[in-house]
Known about the structure:
Elements: H1 6-25, H2 41-61, H3 74-94, H4 96-108, H5 116-137
Helix pairs in contact: 1-2, 3-4, 4-5
Amino acid sequence: MKDxxxxxxxxxxxxxxxxxxxxxxxxxxxxxxxxxxxxxxxPTVLGWVLVAxxxxxxxxxxxxxxxxxxxxxxxxxxWVIGSILLFAATLQSLGxxxxxxxxxxxxxxxxREITWRGRVFVAIGVTVVTVLIFSVGLxxxxxxxxxxx
Length: 149
């Protein structure tokens, strides 16, 4: 057990556990089909993808040598969790564009090496991709801006 990369084993296991939770919990909703997706389709597929990615992270780490010691960064954790809560709290009131921009910007505060200009570009990029996927590609009925609810 000493010769494994504990950081990637724990990280991969957490990703896989989160994916398994979402995949199993979403069974409560109708799955639908690829042509006509039900409310459980996306979380189920995404959950199983996370399980696979978690395994791809954790399994090779079982044989890899130990890396740097594991150190929890609670500040970064708080920024990321806070950004998710901010998104949930502002989606209906501000719309998809502003909520995504604010949440992405807040999550980028966890990375101390990125510049303020870089944070803005990341937030803009994530916002554009989010609008393209959910509003244009999936045609979800989400308010884009606060004045058009």
